[in-house]
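residues and backbone:
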Amino acid sequence: MSAKYSFHLRSEDRQRELPQKIIIGRQDTETLTHVALKFLAYLLFFRERLQIETNLHMSAIPFVPDLVQLDYELRPKLWVECGECSVTKLNKLAVKVPEAEIWIMKRSPAAAEQLFQAMAKEELRRDRYELIGLDEEMVDEFCGLLAPRNELLWVKGEWDPPQMQFDFNGLWFDAPFTRLRF
């Protein structure tokens, strides 16, 4: 692991009782943007039993998700991939985690649309995937503020219309995002 980022969290959103602190490790092969996307996905998808980069120890599922929520029988119910993700991997996930919602978080609407087109070209199963394209300028600004120790006040995250509001390390973010169903 090349770096660790700690996040002290507070929430004004009564629907999201965030933990006081989380730590996200950055592997040697990961970019700062990947860490930022994992953290933002954690906030947006927060629910009970949501885990970051948990090895499932299942021979049938050779992948480690960026975020996963397991049901009480330890089967994935939510699977979130952040940043770069191959179409081949997504195709395999649809089979390997048949009961899970599969989401892909991208740094921009253009990146989400590009993946959407690649998925269509490879004829992946329809109605299995959701893609999120964040505001690229917001992601760049967020990455510029990312430090080993961080403070976040979550105000709200909505799906209709898709929008996030939060204060990160003293800077206010009010950012829409794009949501695509494949």
User: Anything to note?
Assistant: The two ends are 34 Å apart (CA to CA). The chain has a mean pLDDT of 96. Helices lie at 32-45, 87-96, 109-121, 136-145. The longest strand covers residues 149-159.
